[in-house]
Structures are given as C-alpha cells and as structure tokens.
Amino acid sequence: MQVTEGRVIVSRPGRNFVTLKLVTDEGVTGVGDATLNGRELAVASYLRDHVVPLLVGRDPARIEDTWQFLYKGAYWRRGPVTMSAIAAVDTALWDIKGKVAGLPVYQLLGGRSRDGVTVYGHANGETVDDVLAEVARYVELGYRAVRVQCGIPGLPITYGVSDDKLFYEPAGVALPPEASWSTEAYLSFIPTVFARVRDEFGPALRLLHDAHHRLTPIEAARLGKSLEPYELTWLEDPVPAELPDGFRLIRQHTTTPLAVGEVFNTIWDCEQLIREQLVDYVRATVVHAGGISHLRRIFDLAALHHVRSGSHGATDLSPVCMAAALHLDLAIPNFGLQEYMRHTEETDRVFPHAYHFAAGYLHPGDEPGLGVDIDEELAARYPYQPAYLPVNRLVDGTMHSW
Ligand code: EZ4
Ligand code: CO
C-alpha cells in the first residue's frame, strides 16, 4: 500500500480547524488533526508545502519510521508547528492501520484498560451563583468531574469565563482581545468560590481549577495551600512551565495535586517534571505533542514515575484529536482524566464520529480506525477566518503571562 495524496483541509465550522486527510492507492483513508489555535495557517503550510510531498509513495504501515523520518529529517526538531504537523500524519497513519486491521485503534494499543474514559467539563460564570448553576448543569448531565472558573470582582474580563457555556470558546475574531488580571484579587477570592461549590455539591464530585500560567511559584504555593480543604483533583498550569524548578517550590508547600502540559509539544518539555515527580498529571495531547505515537511515549515515561495522564480537550482540539485521545486514554495503564469541552453542532456535523458520552464517561466506539471522519463538502462551506487567543494585561497595563 502507498500514500497517494494528502489533503490539508482548513475550515471554520464554529471555529477554525486544520485537518489532514491521507489517501492510499487502495482507497483506505486516514485523518489527523493539525489545529494550532491562533496560528492555524502555519501548520497548514508546513504540511502542504513541506510534509505531504515526502509522504507520497510511502508505505502507510510504517508509522514509527515515518515519525522518526519527519522528526529527525527536518533537522529543526520540536516546536508547536512542527510537532502539530507530525501529529497529524501520525494520527492519520494510526487511523489507516486500524481500518486495514479492521480494529479500533485502542485494540492496536493493547486493548482497553478500563470501561470508559472519565471526562471533566467546564463550569464558568461571572458570579459564584452563576458558577453554582453551571456546576449543577454538568452534574445533571452525569459528569463526575468539573473544572470551576469564576469572574473576579473588580476585573472586567477574566480568561476562562465567557458567554458560551457547554462549548466555551476562548479565541476571538480579528485582533487579539485583551483580558485583565490582578493576582491579589484572584488569590483571596478563588478559595471562597471553592468553599461554596464543595458545600453545595458534597465530597464526591471531582473539582479542578486552571490558573492559566498566571502566578509565580510562591503565589501558586499559597493558592494550592488555601485550596487544600476543598480537595481538588488538580490545580492546572499554576506557573508558566518553561522553568520546571518552579514546580519544586510549589511542591514544598502544598498537597494540592498539580497538572501541566497543554502547551507541551515533546517529551523533552516534561521529562524533568515527570522524572522528579514535580507534577501529578501531564496534559499533553495528541495534536500538539506529536500524535498518538509520541504521546504514548510521554505517558509511558509518566507511568514509571507515578504521574498520570490528563489530556487537554478544549474546543480547539478537533473531534479527530478527541477520538485519537480517547483510544489512547482507554488503553494506557496510567490514565488520569480527560478534558472534554463539547463542540458546537456545526463542528460535530463536519466531523462525524463514533465516540459518545454516557454517565460521565466518553467511549471511542468500536469502528475500525479512529471512528471519525471529515465531511469535506460540508467543511468547504465554512471558510477560514483569522481568530486569536486573548492577551492578558495587569490592571496597570503591563503585559502578563497567560
Ligand atoms: O487555553 O484551548 O484547559 N484548557 C485551557 C484552554 C486553552 C485553549 C488554548 O487554545 O486552558 O482554554
Ligand atoms: Co488549561
């Protein structure tokens, strides 16, 4: 079998997505997600101009060799653009392998290690009362875990809080929107939100919170400590992760579990964090961390060091990435939790998929391959439109980390 064509499909069914579809001489096709929020066309060009010409004529069965060829052969290793492009190829090749074998990809990865993939949803609101109502909505839908974000009194716009709810979308059209930030206001307010949520929903519901890389290590340590009575499953992205040493300082002060890694693109971004057990969950995901092959390598390393998976699953990760993530989540021994922000109906129509939600779990389904496709005719009706993630400033105007 040979790869004969690679189509790069850029479409905006509710938000922008970049999808790679590989076609073979035997008619079997495979799909991979290549979406890099706010920088989509860079990956589309990387694939179209530099990668697809190298794939034509290759044997699609050689997944690992193709990964190594694209990673080592580029000379310029790592980086989100390169690794999202490699991820798309890798994902599409696993899809093809599954279809050829007549097996769902999780079977090729060793079979299922659990009955379903526990997911968490996002409850966010301007006020604590709004947040409580949103948490209740997820509980009614059957979710067992909920991420809680709340507007901060005195700050006009807070990242993670929006008008959309079940499929909350952080990217805005045209130029980047600006959000404001005050660590002082945040640190004293957030524990009061969790006190009310715990009080209202009891001890069984798993609660999470995302600090979006906004704190210094000592501030994050204080937050972790003040959230201990509310028994979070994790505190996410407490500090920017370029400096792994920051996590050691946080660890010295708090037993609140830590999660990090949605922006990681290779094992080298988290090798020290994992080896030194500085975090509890790694949030790397299929599309941004080199595909199923490389993410499995990260999670295998994590398994040696008592670290679990907690893959990113926001709306900018397409249903193709979500399907791939679910096959891996179902198979690995050290699965922790999977983020699941529902996609819009437009997105779901463009990407028909076999995965489904029931009683707090997602199931990838049993179709051969990944069980997801792209309806190219429908996708063509939603042209690309530039969109950016917000930038963040302190109240005095200083650019802040986000
Ligand atoms: O900022 O998906 O945990 N989820 C998040 C998301 C990310 C976006 C980035 O594209 O932090 O909202
Ligand atoms: Co996050």
Overview of the structural elements:
- The protein is an alpha/beta fold.
- Helix 5 (128-141) links the parallel strand 4 (117-125) and strand 5 (145-150).
- The protein has helices spanning 40-55, 63-73, 80-101, 105-108, 128-141, 183-201, 217-227, 245-251, 271-275, 291-304, 319-331, 345-350, 376-379; strands spanning 3-11, 17-24, 29-33, 117-125, 145-150, 172-173, 178-181, 206-210, 234-236, 258-260, 281-282, 308-309, 338-339, 356-358, 361-363, 387-388, 391-394, 399-400.
- Strands 4, 5, 8, 9, 10, 11, 12, 13, 14 and 15 form a 10-stranded mixed sheet that branches.
- Helices cover 36% and strands 18% of the residues.
- Helix 3 crosses helix 10 (291-304) and helix 5 packs across helix 6 (183-201).
- The protein binds (2S,3R,4R)-2,3,4,5-tetrahydroxy-N-oxo-pentanamide and cobalt (II) ion (CO).
- (2S,3R,4R)-2,3,4,5-tetrahydroxy-N-oxo-pentanamide binds at residues 37, 170, 210, 212, 262, 312, 314, 316, 339, 389.
- Residues 37, 170, 210, 212, 262, 312, 314, 316, 339, 389 line the site of (2S,3R,4R)-2,3,4,5-tetrahydroxy-N-oxo-pentanamide.
